[in-house]
Amino acid sequence: MELIKIQSFSFLFTILILSSSSLPHRHRHNRRHHRRNSQLIPTIFHPPFIPSNVNGEWVLLHESIGVSAMHMQLLYNNKVIIFDRTDFGASNLSLPQGKCRFDDEVLDVDCSAHSVLYDILSNTYRPLMVQTDVWCSSGALNSDGTLIQTGGYHTGDRKIRLFSPCDGDCDWTELPQNLTVQRWYASDHILPDGRVIIVGGRKAFSYEFFPKTMDENGGGFQLPFLVETTDPIEENNLYPFLYILPNGNLYIFSNQRSIELDYVNHNVLREFPMIPGEKRSYPATGSSVMLPLRLRQGQEPVVEVMICGGAWGGAYVKALEGEFWRGSSSCGRMRITDPDPKWVMEEMPLGRVMPDMLLLPTGNVLILNGAANGAAGWENAIDPVLNPVLYRPDEPDPRRRFTVLTPTKIARMYHSSAILLPDGRILVGGSNPHATYNFTGVKYPTELSLEAFSPPYLATQYAHLRPLNQAIDVGQVISYDQQFSITFTLPFPQPDAEFMVSMIPPSFTTHSFGMNQRLLFLEIVRVERFFMFGYRVIVFAPPTRNVAPPGYYMVFVVHQGVPSHSVWVKIQ
């Protein structure tokens, strides 16, 4: 990663050396002025702080938002679209007066909301109206920040819906045109040319595009790989993991196998080794991220995929019979840009099925939600895993990469979700392992609550390291390979400041996968200190659309393992 130090010889005070445990990661001040036998070092005075939980903190935002958060999408106006499904009856939130859905599969008249728009800044929400069933659907933001939301169930399985960010009373729009086939449990990804590719789904062994291409036939483009990765009865190939590669091709993982697809010429270019151990795709659900891309001028970034959790083949069938097999505790990492890629396996401290994996602004990975035993599906899992786990991919000692964090009190089982927020917190909601909303007489009631998890870097004792008042000199819009600067302040002068700049698009999260999730560490040209508390970091924007598909991104400045509040930019 791009780590830049600023050395200052202007020291204000001298205090006792701070314990290394007060730093959130291995990034430390450069103590080149420290004398071996001295008990004192010149540094900056920090006032007393209020102790905070360095293993993360949970805050309940709402006991109920009226719907269960099966799907989440962050928008660039700091609002979050949350939605569930429509075919189970009324939710616990009413639509505005006069709005109703008619001739629903369950209700003749349904005047309840199955979607909400959550405002992060005010911690409020308002009901939204979806027209058709969005159950187990998929989505991606286009280059203008509009959510392209695809598929679902029954009346919604071929539908295309739009939601554009606004500050007024905007709502869902459903297009008259349809997908080529039903897309239930499919995955979406924005492409370098701004289109969205939709891959797979139940009995949908193909892919298609929105907007459609001129050569697209009635059933999309066939992908035999999805047939080959389908297990009898269980499937274990739904919600495939997708990543756009720096060469413009698409990485697709399903079940235990993965390929590189040239979706322009419709050719599979290569197949990668099979991941050892358990199945990883729905309903033997694991999760995945593409680890951070570290950008350098004139160099192709190394691409490494990480997959954690899942279940053994047969776990889904056994769960239907009331026998719950232990979820996977393994993670695999594979550098797909290596000449001979191989999976390198590691063991998590807590095994789980249905985990969520999120990239943090620091480049670390947060693993949360899910169950210790069973598989995805209704009533198919037991023993919620309440503790998030932090994974540090750059830690050289594998034994120290995983850290177990503070547990939540709320079980987040099947149909839960989590996303990264612009302030560095994690928004967590959902969990409904039942065919309908069920709040009594069950072990794991339907969850309508919404909570936020603050990772360790947001602990109060690190507040003195947090960059503040971040601004970008060129405004909100940047161009590829452009140099631009980010100005910010630190609460106290730092003699040996160390910075990184990370750039993250908002992901669409459902069923344990954050679609379109990626993290770019930008190349830093130089760092300038222009007054006691002020800094300017000059960076290169991502070089191509393949590295960073067009659209909105959160830009974070990370100082010694502590990120700023992000600033939104649009790259085009």
UniProtKB/TrEMBL annotation:
Keywords: Signal. Residues 1-22 form the signal peptide. Residues 470-571 form the Galactose oxidase-like Early set domain. It comes from the Eukaryota. Residues 70-457 form the Glyoxal oxidase N-terminal domain. CDD domains: E_set_GO_C (cd02851). The keyword Cell cycle does not apply. PANTHER family: F14L17.20 PROTEIN (PTHR32208:SF57), SECRETED PROTEIN-RELATED (PTHR32208). This is Galactose oxidase-like Early set domain-containing protein.
